[in-house]
Design goal:
Rossmann fold; 236 residues; 47% helix
Length: 236
């Protein structure tokens, strides 16, 4: 965990993600990335020079019209002294049963993100943190290049002027493999995704492509991130 916290702190300091008095909402999907982010930010409170508060927020899409079980995450947040909010929604019903979306991930992301932003503001947060990591950034860059012909990516820090809310991505310099090792080592309670298109998305295709390319071009994901930084693309 200390290695991951060190990488996370480098990103936080480089992009000035946390300031004194911040109240940060963590978008908790229940997956490994958000769990690692939760624990790392909770641990860093002990020694980081700026004081900040944390709130964990889960937006449950309720697949098959049934709520998911987040009780273990609820217990983890209790042990970490972090307020935990679960909001049950009908997102899955709207996307898969009403609209029959051909590209469900895009609409789901938009709707889920908007609801999370509103909840973060409702609970007095001025920032919201997501568990996006280096692999996510490299995949997003490639997807934008292939689909839109654009050299673009999400930013480590984004300001949402309409909400007066900052989005931060503290794990953006950490690799997925580093996060996976930490989660497995300390046995964090990962909630398996019940989404019907899980592991069957365009992002998964690009992930596999990058894995294949890295056999010939080692550390390709890290090189893509370096390119984003040297080109200062989207505030990298």
């Amino acid at each position: 965990m200390q290695k991951l916290i060190s990488i996370m702190r480098s990103a936080i300091d480089k992009y000035n993600m946390i300031e004194n008095g911040d109240k940060i909402a963590i978008g908790m999907s229940g997956g490994k990335d958000s769990l690692a982010l939760l624990c790392a930010l909770a641990e860093m409170r002990r020694f980081y020079p700026h004081n900040y508060e944390l709130v964990a927020i889960t937006l449950d899409p309720c697949f098959d019209s049934e709520p998911s079980d987040f009780s273990q995450i609820e217990e983890l947040c209790r042990r970490l002294n972090i307020q935990y909010i679960i909001k049950r929604t009908n997102l899955a019903h709207i996307i898969f049963e009403q609209r029959h979306e051909k590209n469900p991930c895009s609409l789901c992301a938009i709707m889920r993100r908007g609801a999370l932003h509103d909840l973060a503001l409702e609970y007095g947060c001025n920032k919201i943190a997501f568990g996006h990591h280096m692999d996510d950034a490299a995949e997003t860059f490639m997807m934008n290049l292939f689909n839109l012909g654009q050299m673009s990516c999400f930013s480590p820090v984004s300001y949402l002027s309409r909400k007066d809310l900052y989005m931060i991505r503290p794990l953006v310099l950490a690799s997925e493999s580093q996060i996976t090792r930490v989660v497995n080592k300390i046995r964090l309670p990962v909630v398996k995704s019940r989404c019907p298109v899980d592991k069957n998305t365009q992002r998964e295709t690009v992930k596999n492509l990058l894995t294949d390319l890295e056999k010939q071009y080692p550390a390709l994901r890290k090189k893509i991130i370096g390119g984003l930084q040297r080109g200062n693309i989207d505030n990298w």
